[in-house]
Amino acid sequence: MVDKYRNHISGKWSATGSLGTFKNINPADTRDIVGEFPASGKEEVDAAVAAARAAFRKWSLVPAPKRGEIIKRAGDLMVERKEDIARLMTREMGKILIETRGDVQEGIDTAYYAAGEGRRLFGDTVPCELPNKLGMSIRCPVGVCGVITPWNFPMAIPTWKIFPALMCGNTVVFKPASDTPATAVKFVEILLDAGVHEGVINLVHGTGKTVGMPMVEHPGIQLIGFTGSSGVGRIIGEKCGAQLKRLSLELGGKNAEIVMDDANLELALEGALWGAFGTTGQRCTATSRLILHKKISKRFVEQFVEKAQKLRIGNGLDESVQVGPLVNAGQRDIVHNYVKIGREEDKATMLCGGEFLTGGDYDRGFFYKPTVFVNVTRGMRIAKEEIFGPVVVALEVESLDDAIETLNDSSYGLSSSIYTQDVNAAFKAMRDIEAGITYINGPTIGAEIQLPFGGMKNTGNGHRESSHTVLDTYTEWKSIYVDFSGKLQRAQIDT
Ligand code: NAD
Known about the structure:
Layout: E1 7-9, E2 12-14, E3 21-25, E4 33-38, H1 42-61, H2 64-93, H3 97-117, E5 125-127, E6 133-141, E7 144-148, H4 156-167, E8 171-175, H5 181-194, E9 201-203, H6 208-217, E10 223-227, H7 230-243, E11 246-250, E12 255-259, H8 265-277, E13 287-293, H9 297-310, H10 329-344, E14 349-352, E15 371-374, H11 381-384, E16 391-397, H12 400-408, E17 412-413, E18 415-419, H13 423-432, E19 437-440, E20 456-457, H14 471-474, E21 475-483
Parallel strand pairs: 7-8, 7-10, 8-9, 10-11, 12-13, 12-18, 13-16, 15-16, 18-19
Antiparallel strand pairs: 1-2, 3-4, 5-6, 6-21, 14-15, 17-20
Bound molecules: nicotinamide-adenine-dinucleotide (NAD).
Residues 148-153, 157, 175, 177-178, 207-209, 212-213, 216, 227-229, 232, 235-236, 250-253, 284, 386, 388, 414, 459 line the site of nicotinamide-adenine-dinucleotide.
């Protein structure tokens, strides 16, 4: 018996979609059907937008500290349900249990952070040029927010957008990735149980084409919060630009770890393994390039390959497994195709991996061997394009300047890291690396909610999630001038 999951529109759950249903399959065991979901289209999007619009005024007038209290309760419910959600998420998208627990934990951290912001939501008060006059700025909600999310962080990424959106007084239409719709249902159940009003959160399942695009094009949606690939981000950007619609884009990466010749190599190795193969390389911040000083390069790569080959790959529900499957057959084929490209490129040499895991339980999932290329140079496609799988390329450099220049030679600018014991080198890297996130003596993954998250260049359009910076996406600024002089005072004219 397959579990049936539903849309949530205008306070009601509904199992029917105008385009039928779709199933979600466990990528570690394709016999396991996680659930059946309504395949929705424009009809459901229209209904969800109408519900979100109708709920907007009442919700926006709830004092922000009270909205924050509801979000705090949602965080508490996530704590209670953490283990169940983590297990469901592992079945849905494959990553190992410690990581899916971490994914839910990120949602909990986001809830508590957003709840606290409900009691701040700071604006400014400033003096005015003229006597008996005061200036201040306040934040206003934007309206109906369309939230479109990927499958690699099925709880964390939706919470990064939806908690601040709700706390700021907006209402939401939420379309999760069709690989991870069950986790999205659990999230919406939590919001409703915490006391979010009817119509304030609406969940519509379906594809990017049938649900995502109608949301982007809908005149009743004032803002799109999107995380996903740069290709889709560009299409959405064009559509939103034509409508002058507010848009926050969090897109792809080609993140690098620099290892200098004075680095603690054990630490750098541990960081590289975790950064490259955690979430099976399917993180926007995954370490996909190793930039190695020539003095340690050979030694580092030898040990890295040895450790990569020992990683235990399998079903993420098994606590002894270190790397789960890729999310679906399509993603596995994309990864394999990049490996083929790498093998045909110039002098690049593959030292391990490069194939599917087969035999026994492996035949029922999308498992891929950790893969390492050396003799890679900057211009090669495997050094430039996001692969989104367990594939790492190593580039050799002569100096710190060469390392930073190599790291910056990318159309993306999301995460970065440098391992060095030299404080001067570390500070130079902090200043000169072109990325939204830089780790010193840590891997390229591991963001926390209290600092801005996002990237430069083709990784986005200048917005940042997390921290207080996310409030600039989900609020409009309003400037207010209060003249209590009792007469007309003309700015820039009366002195
Ligand atoms: P994707 O771009 O294929 O899909 C993301 C979401 O957009 C899904 O919900 C999908 O259904 C929807 N979508 C697809 N086409 C659409 C369209 N034409 N109109 C509207 N919606 C559409 O990405 P994915 O494969 O789900 O996720 C992997 C990508 O996400 C990688 O590129 C990764 O780097 C990126 N990512 C970025 C961040 C970040 O914060 N920068 C975080 C996680 C993932």
